[in-house]
Design goal:
This protein is an alpha+beta fold. 27% of the residues lie in helices and 30% in strands. The chain folds into 2 domains: 308 residues, no CATH class; 38 residues, no CATH class. The strands form 5 sheets. Strands 1, 2, 3, 4, 5, 10, 11, 12, 13 and 14 form a 10-stranded mixed beta sheet that branches. It has a 4-stranded antiparallel beta sheet with strand order 6-7-16-15, with no helix packed on it. A two-stranded antiparallel ribbon has the order 8-9. A hairpin with a 2-residue loop joins strand 8 and strand 9. 27% of the residues are buried.
């Protein structure tokens, strides 16, 4: 019975996982060239909203068999995209950054899938474009670039070709008005009115907490990704990444918001977003700093002399030397422990004292020789029952003799008589046997008579 329940739970879990789609939140990917006036960037915003109806109800009747998709693309020539650029730049400016979005393409995909227990609505919005005015100052030594623009987003409606894509409640209102009437002005508003285009957490995570790497040879291989040629050969590429659970960034978990809705039945509206991720690269060696509350990076063509680490601060060097020190301490501790154990070890005879043992012979003669097999037992007979020899259970006796029907003849011709062959004495016409000879030859009989 327990095995059946386990299999049922496993199948249900696989079904839920298989029916769920990716729920990444904000993902940034930017490659900044301090030697240019513009650089490319891209943002991916994803969110999944679940409307659950475990008791059925009107929302179940409306959604459980439905599936539809609303999608589209637009560039900077679209009025909705132009308004979005203005809104993005306004928010960037509120973060004390003078960087601007100068070009933008928008791709969106909203997919509804109804099921018997819940309906999911997946929101996917991708922004690809160009940022400019990120260079603060530049001299012969280094270039200061602005990093305060990375929290890109908007709290305003974003309408592309008549479709509002920034607030989940909008598409529900447009495509499912009956469901909207139930959810509107309920506790679900706190979830359905949260903007999808939002990367505040990426800005809230200080750049000093991001993982830093630089590649002194990667520019030649990565030149095409920057839209540059081999003329940049010799520079390094600095990369900052975030989104992993670590001591710097803390534990990264998915964001889950849930609200109950009481109507004709009890419903639950839940939104799920995974942790945000970021990947920003810059040509040159980047050193982070803060200027009037704005996070910046000082970019130089090459790393400072003697800078040998490839990670944040002195992390690899610290770890390497730290591990070596711990290994040395571990070795010292092992030798100390071994030395103490050796001193405490008993020296000399261990176990039973040989003076307390008594030998016991277990072999008998075999032919004309005696074997040297034997056993020993304790002289203290109190323990002898546990150690006594199994040979004591058998009485030792010499090998039995082979019986004979008559005395063995003292002459060599006796054997000839037994087998009926011709006697040696008769052949030699001479008998040297004694009185015990029983040979049937006449010469031997005469010899025996004369002796008697």
């Amino acid at each position: 019975m327990s095995r059946t329940v386990f299999v049922a739970v496993l199948i249900a879990t696989l079904f839920v996982i298989g029916s769920s789609s990716s729920v990444w939140a904000a993902q940034i990917d930017a490659r900044v060239n301090p030697n240019s006036n513009a650089s490319p960037f891209s943002y991916n915003f994803q969110k999944t909203v679940f409307i659950e109806y475990p008791d059925g109800g009107k929302i179940f009747d409306e959604l459980h068999e439905k599936e539809w998709t609303v999608s589209g693309t637009a560039d900077a020539s679209n009025p909705g995209v132009q308004k979005l650029i203005e809104s993005l730049n306004h928010k960037i400016l509120s973060h004390k950054s003078n960087t601007k979005v100068s070009d933008l393409n928008v791709t969106y995909d909203i997919h509804l899938k109804g099921r018997n227990l819940n309906t999911s609505i997946d929101y996917k919005i991708k922004l690809e474009g160009t940022i400019s005015d990120y260079v603060i100052t530049k001299d012969q030594v280094r270039t200061l670039i602005d990093l305060g623009w990375r929290g890109m987003g908007t709290d305003d409606p974003v309408i592309i070709d008549g479709v509002e894509i920034n607030f989940p409640i909008s598409v529900i209102k447009d495509k499912e008005p009956a469901v909207y009437d139930i959810l509107a002005k309920s506790e679900a508003d706190s979830i359905l009115l949260k903007s999808v285009i939002n990367s505040d957490f990426i800005l809230e995570q200080p750049m000093t907490n991001w993982h830093f790497l630089f590649d002194p040879t990667g520019v030649t291989a990565d030149a095409k990704t920057f839209g540059l040629d081999k003329s940049i050969s010799g520079f390094v590429v600095s990369k900052w990444t975030m989104g992993e659970s670590s001591l710097r960034e803390g534990r990264q978990v998915e964001k889950v918001f849930e609200a109950p809705v009481s109507a004709d039945k009890n419903y639950v509206v839940r939104s799920v977003q995974s942790s945000d991720q970021g990947n920003i690269a810059a040509i040159g060696f980047g050193a982070l700093d803060v200027l009037d509350g704005l996070e910046i990076a000082g970019i130089t063509p090459r790393p400072p002399q003697g800078y040998q680490t490839t990670s944040t601060g002195g992390f690899p060097v610290t770890i390497v030397y730290g591990m070596a020190a711990m290994a040395a301490l571990g070795g010292i501790g092992f030798f100390i422990f071994s030395n103490r154990a050796l001193k405490n070890q008993k020296i000399g005879q261990q176990g039973i004292d040989p003076s307390r043992l008594v030998s016991y012979q277990t072999s008998a003669s075999a032919g004309g020789y005696q074997t040297n097999r034997g056993e020993a037992y304790l002289a203290d007979t109190s323990d002898y029952e546990q150690t006594r020899s199994v040979y004591e259970d058998q009485k030792q006796s010499p090998p039995p003799s082979i019986p004979s029907s008559k005395e063995e003849a003292a002459c060599g011709c006796a054997a000839s008589a037994e087998i009926g062959s011709e006697c040696d004495c008769e052949m030699q016409d001479s008998c040297l046997c004694d009185a015990t000879c029983q040979c049937s030859a006449d010469i031997c009989k005469d010899q025996v008579k004369s002796m008697k």
